[in-house]
């Protein structure tokens, strides 16, 4: 079984730093990598709809000289049609890697167990490692040579889990601020804090906006994750004080604003910030491709 990327929690800090460096090289010197995946085929298996993930993987693989096959389950669970382990075993007969965007982390684990090729988590209910890599790549570009401090505000979810875990690996200062009852799972906090204790990082979880003061960048995500059918009106009053806006930027002193997108303008984040000079949103989106390409190169070299 080849090494996969389901979450960065089982990657060493040095391997992650090497991956970030590789991503920068892929971005800055694309001509060096035009044949990196020549003769390689990647299957993209999507249970959930996507803009950035699908397009960035498809175009990214093409830029590396490879071939991507997109399989769309039309937002239905893949396991409902065929057992995940059977899909993993079949796909690894032909493909050199599997990229999977799924509802359940368990589906990814089943694909890995049955597959002879690397499996890359393009999003599940627990993690979004490709997004987190693009985010820390973006921070490395605008804060060169500095270990960043990042404040996440809003609803804890797969993105905040990956920001905590990857940030802990990198020795970063990551602060998660949510309304009461919307914090990360206890095991996610404990795992991230244990890693941070080894790397010199810091993981803070709070319900108080004051905990964000002094961070380099503020980050938010949608208040309702994809597939969550909770009416917006049922949670709007709870989350409104946690909106990422100019007032919060001033209060915290943050230089930059981040969002993984899709963004709901003037709900979790103000349009003024999305379109303003402090916004890293388009840099994050572009870096999805470069980070993912670095992951593919790294994993396929190890096969």
From TrEMBL:
Belongs to the aspartate/ornithine carbamoyltransferase superfamily. OTCase family. This is Ornithine carbamoyltransferase. It is an enzyme of class 2 (transferase). GO terms for molecular function: amino acid binding; ornithine carbamoyltransferase activity. PANTHER family: ORNITHINE CARBAMOYLTRANSFERASE, MITOCHONDRIAL (PTHR45753), ORNITHINE TRANSCARBAMYLASE, MITOCHONDRIAL (PTHR45753:SF3). Its EC number is 2.1.3.3. Residues 4-141 form the Aspartate/ornithine carbamoyltransferase carbamoyl-P binding domain. SUPFAM superfamilies: Aspartate/ornithine carbamoyltransferase. InterPro entries: Asp/Orn_carbamoyltranf_P-bd, Asp/Orn_carbamoylTrfase, Asp/Orn_carbamoylTrfase_sf, Asp_carbamoyltransf_Asp/Orn-bd, Orn/put_carbamltrans. One of its GO terms (biological process) is L-arginine biosynthetic process via ornithine. It catalyses: carbamoyl phosphate + L-ornithine = L-citrulline + phosphate + H(+). It comes from Saliniradius amylolyticus. Residues 150-298 form the Aspartate/ornithine carbamoyltransferase Asp/Orn-binding domain. Keywords: Transferase.
